[in-house]
Amino acid sequence: MPLESTKKKTRIHASLREVIRTFGMPNIILTCAVFIALVFIGVLYRENNKLSVYNKMLAESKFENWPGLSGTPALQVDDIVPSFDTINLQQQFVKISYDNSSTYLFFIFSSRCGSCVKQLSNWNHIAAKAKVAGAIPIGIALDGSEALNVLRNDNWNFDTIAMPSMAVQRAYRVVAIPQIMLISPLGTVDWVHRGELTGREIDEVISRVAHLSRRNR
Questions:
Q1: 3-state SS string over the chain?
Q2: Model pTM?
């Protein structure tokens, strides 16, 4: 080992011993702990600022993925939603397009959501009526192919697609599930409901589907 390097190490060791002798080991440990705590507090402060900015964006609905989207964080009647591409649970391509040709009725759910699974029979009944009225009923599974766990063994009156991305989920303002929404051929929200459906609400959405479909024929 070079003599100069050895001398440097000796000086460093001597300096460390002098620091320990001057301040004492407990004080050094305390100082290190305070320094680590300050660093941790700084990181928390920075992350909290990021969260505050995100929450402000959410409150104002300023989603960068869909410029021009405005209003409250939850979907409202007369909001306009974007077209999107995705796949169904059989891995086939599906295009949801608002080109003034189709009325859509969406049921957004997850197989991990107990309330969603309980509503599947009601949704299937609504979907059958929607098809007769000329609308297109579609289930949108937030958990993708995992939804096959609850859809595999029954005859359903609707196709189920996967939610393609968080950007689309934000654009459709899915803040709670199950969520049912009726969308006009131009992409305008005609009716929306979050949570379980009562008998009156089931009749209401069936009536609205029939009315909207007749109006746009």
A1: CCHHHHHHHHHHHHHHHHHHHHHCHHHHHHHHHHHHHHHHHHHHHHHHHHHHHHHHHHHHCCCCCCCCCCCCCCCCCCCECCCEEEEECCCCEEEECCCCCCCEEEEEECCCCHHHHHHHHHHHHHHHHHHHHCCEEEEEECCHHHHHHHHCCCCCCCEEEECCCHHHHHHCCCCCCCEEEEECCCCEEEEEEECCCCHHHHHHHHHHHHHHHHHCC
A2: 0.64
